[in-house]
Each structure stands twice: as C-alpha cells, then as structure tokens.
Design a protein that fits this description.
The chain has 20 helices and 17 strands. It is of the alpha/beta class and 607 residues long. Bound molecules: flavin-adenine dinucleotide. Flavin-adenine dinucleotide binds next to helix 1, strand 3, strand 8 and helix 8.
Length: 607
Amino acid sequence: MSACAVPEYDAAIIGAGPVGCVCALVLARKGAKVALLEANPRASERLAGEWLHPPAAKLLRDVGIDVDTLSPDKSGIGFVVLPDDGSDPILLPYPDGSRGLVCDHALLVSSLREAMENEVNVDFISHARVNVVEDERVTFSKDGSERAISAARIVGADGRASIVRRSLGHSMKPMLCSRMLGVTLHDVNLPFEGYGHVVLGGPGPVFIYGLADGSVRVNLDVPFDRWTSRDRTSFLSESYAGLLPGDLEPAFVEALHVKRFHVAVNQLRPRVTYGKPGRVLVGDAAGHYHPMTAVGMTLGFGDALALSESKDFQRFSAERFRAVRVPEFLAMGLYEVLADYRTESVMLRKAVYQGWRANSAYRDRTMRILACEELSMPATIFSFCETVARAMYRETTSAIGRVAWRRIWMTFRALAVRLWWFLLGVRQLRGAIREGREESAKAREHLTRAFSYSIPSRTEWERPARARDVESPDASSALGRAARCLVHLQREDGAWEGEMVWCPMLTAQYALLHHIIGQPFDPGRRRRVLRSFERTRLQDGSWGLHEHSLPHLFVTALVYVAARLLGVAPDDPLIVRARRFIQAEGILGIPSPDYVRSSSGEPVGPI
Ligand SMILES: Cc1cc2nc3c(=O)[nH]c(=O)nc-3n(C[C@H](O)[C@H](O)[C@H](O)COP(=O)(O)OP(=O)(O)OC[C@H]3O[C@@H](n4cnc5c(N)ncnc54)[C@H](O)[C@@H]3O)c2cc1C
C-alpha cells in the first residue's frame, strides 16, 4: 500500500463499545474527523453494563440518543438494598429526583452506532480488527486484507484487553475479582418498580433490574472459590434462589436448570494512566472495576467527554484522575462491605445499614459518590470515618463482658490493618501516576490486602475450588435463616421428617470394624457395601460427606482402606482415581499394622 493511499483523520478510535461510540460522537460534534474501528460488531451481545447513573443518562440525551425509548418507563430511580439480616429493605433514591437509566447492553450499543450513521464526521469501519498501533498510524485487517489509516490522535476504547494499552507497554495482567452470572426472567415482577434491587445474604451480592421489554435481569456475583463445575446448578439455586424478591424464584430456578444464562468474569484495574498525548486510553481500556456499583460506563463516558473538551492532554488526565478516584474506591469499598463476611466487614455493613436508614444526608452522599458526582476525597474519607465510628459505637454499647471487648478490639485492629494497606496502595498508585509508570506490583499487593474479599490474591483464585476457612466469620445471619428454615419444616407433632443420606464414611468405618474384630463380611454383604461405595462416589472418583459435598480427603482415605481390606485391588476402577486424589493431596503411604492388612495379608499402603 502506498503512503498516499492511507486515509487521514484527526482521531482514530479503536473499539465501538459504548464508550468508543460516545467518544466518536462527542469528538465529531467538536468538528474532529473521526474513524471508529470495531473488530466484532456482535461483541456487545455479551453480559455487560446496563445500569447508567444520572450523569451518563444525561450525556446520552445530550448527544441525541432517545434514551426514553430504550429503558422502562419508570427506571433508574435509585437502588433498594435487601439486607442479609432479613431486616426491611432500604431505599436509596438518587438525590434531588435525578434519574439514571437501565438499558439492554446490546440495544444501547446498537442505538449509539445508529446515531453515528448521521454523523458526517464519523467513518464507522466495522469488522476491522486493529493489529498494530504505532504513532499516528493504525493497521487493521478487514475482509481478509491488511489496511491502514493515519490519525493525529489514536484513542483506545477497546476494553479490558486493549491493544492500544499493550502498544504503550503497560501490563495486561488481569486482577480477577469474581464471576458474574446473568439470567433473564420473563413474566415476573419486582417489588420496587424502577429501582435496582441489591440482594444480600448469598455467597455474593445479587443485582436485579427491569428492562424495557418487561423482562428482569438477575446478575449474581459468584466468588471464584464457589464456582465449581460439579453441582453448579444446585449450588446456585440453593444459595441464591431463596433470597430473590417478588415472584422471581421459580423462573430463576428453571432458567438455571435449562442453563439459560450468561457468564462474565469481573476484573479490576484502577486507572493509573491515560496513555500519552497521541495515544489516549478511555473507558475500560483505561481502568475497570467490580460491576456491582455500575460505575464503568459513567466513568467511561466522562473520559470521552473530558477528552473532547480538553485541548491539553496533561490537563485532561489530571482532571480525570481527580474525577475517578472517589467512585473507584467506592466501587471497591462498597463491594467489600456488602459481600464480605469477616467480622469487621459485617460490623461496617450493619453501621452502613443504620446510616442509610437514619440519615438522609448519609444516603444522599452515598448516592452522589455512586453516581460519580461527589468527587471530594476528604468528604469521602469523612464518610468512611463516620461509618467506622458508628460501627464501633454500636458494638461498644451492645457489648458486655471481656469476650465482647476483645472482639471489638480485634475488629478495630483488623480495620486499622486494612486501612494501613489501603493507604500504602494509594500512595503507590499516586507515585505511579506522578512518574507516569504503569501500576506497580506493590500497589496491587497492598490493595489486595485492604480489599481482601473484592480482590482475592492471585494464588487464591488460581487454586482449585474447595472449602476455605474464612477468618472470623460472622455466622449470625446464616444461623437465623437456618433456624427459620428448620421451624418452617417442623411437623405439627414437633418432629421432622426427611430422607436420611448415609455418609460413606460410616459404611467404611463399619467395614473396618468388622475387619479389625475378625468378623469378615459374607460375600453378599461385601458386594452390597462395595456397591454402596460405587454409588456414593463423586464425579472425580473421590468420596465426600454427602452427594453434594466437595471431595473429602478423610472420607476418601477411609473408603479406600475399607475397599482394599475387602479385597479390591489398588488399580481397580472403583478406587484408582481415589488413589490419585489421595496422592495429589500429598499422602505418600498408609500405615499397615497387622490389623489393617487385606484378607490375603497384603499391606494396604503404600498408596
Ligand atoms: C457483568 C458485567 C456487568 C456490568 N454492569 C455494569 C453496569 O450495570 N453499569 C456500568 O456502567 N458498567 C457495567 N459494567 C462495565 C461496563 O460493561 C463497561 O464499563 C463498558 O462496557 C466499557 O465500555 P468500553 O466501550 O470501554 O469497552 P467494551 O464495552 O469492552 O468495548 C470494547 C470494544 O472494542 C472492540 N475491540 C477490542 N479490541 C479491538 C481491536 N483490536 N480492534 C477493533 N476493535 C476492538 C470490542 O469488540 C468491543 O466492541 C459491567 C461489566 C460486566 C462484565
């Protein structure tokens, strides 16, 4: 291709997601000649942002998008929180009657792309995958051939895996938070029309809202360590269905069973760089957060607007860092407070509930921060300290005795330690911004310790799913729900009736006892016991405490030994995978005194 054949633009925007489209519209309205390149026009049909805070809704109206036809009549009024302790719902409307917007993600993006068709200053180049980004030049493949354009400014609006970000040499390592599972339900009703319902009490929060076509979207936040491939449907329906408000439960359970859902991974990347004057990052390419606080598009649209209004890159990036810091920390902090079950988080959560219920100024401040309208860091820190003080006061006034005081002291210490890591992380981030560096590993590590639930450390999310000890869990709300469920199941005569599930550990111990006391099973019983082992085996060949249990080393080892004593060979299909499981857990051998030798006198171990 000759150099003179390369079309020239003022700006080349990579990515026609919501932020890329808004960016193209606002730059074009300022008179810039814009090329907008999109690799996969169907990328917007995934599970992604649908709730827009009032500033984002206003911006869409300002650029001429007819948002009112995209969203339900009454929508985006605010949030209603359904607390995990079963107490009354808490309404959090946006202050001063302002309204946000709820819109199906694909519909929003297609409306933005349609709006561009009338923009003479925008060339929308679809099916154009950008492969190389250099100064003032973008090379992309389209229809099987390689093409290029030149632009004074290249804007990376290409999402979390941004090629523009990579071209600037910045780290692309994801910081994974959790998974989001999105289910769409039809013919159901939400109790608070127009509100986003935040339901707490499950393994992760649930975010629910109505869409324009009358359907209801349910987004479940599922922690990584609870995302197991085995019995996922039962786990999801047992852990979340009972919490859902209105008449959502049956439709939700059915959708899970027919696997009618979408899944996305929630990632975090605080904004630390906006690139450089000729190559700017906006939207998720610049930074992204846990979606529960729904700030992604509002901040991304803010990036786009500020870029169109600012002639000077330094001023643009300084202004944006000022604007994003508070919503960014709220996105992390609020998720931590709502989702975590460590004692200090539960204490803060209760104090936050109390503040929201009792104090309209506190409610309004939360909503202004959430809407990305309150940008003052001192005011936010004041709000945080107020919450901590309220939490401490609540505990001290209800505490009696040394144990309670000790609990308060431990909680205070845990909060102080988290605050310490948070401040260190913030310092590292500020240093990185000042020096124009990419985020340092240290900042990441410190923030991980401050937000220990929101940002699991890398090693944690890489570990296979299994039960983990949670430090100082507060089981009071789970206990309350369990008690209510038991009372509900109790028969009129005071008894309970239900199916008895025999744990394989008991069968194994029964077989072991018979062996030790020298009363071997007759062939019929031996066969039935082995069949019971076969039936209670989990999918991976190990044994657990019950059919829904995770693999259990203790139970598997007992069944393995019992089966060996009943004459099953180590390479028999019944136990061969259990043997591998035991070895993978680091067990090298099983002691074989005389009383645990097989009927032929062989030792059971080494494994
Ligand atoms: C489950 C979930 C729920 C969310 N909920 C909310 C919410 O309620 N409210 C909210 O505000 N935010 C929410 N978010 C975040 C929100 O979806 C994002 O902030 C938003 O989509 C970012 O828009 P973007 O245009 O920056 O990037 P994207 O939406 O990721 O768009 C990037 C575009 O760039 C294109 N692209 C990528 N690479 C190339 C390339 N090499 N060449 C050409 N094109 C390329 C992609 O195909 C894509 O179309 C949620 C996110 C998730 C995952």
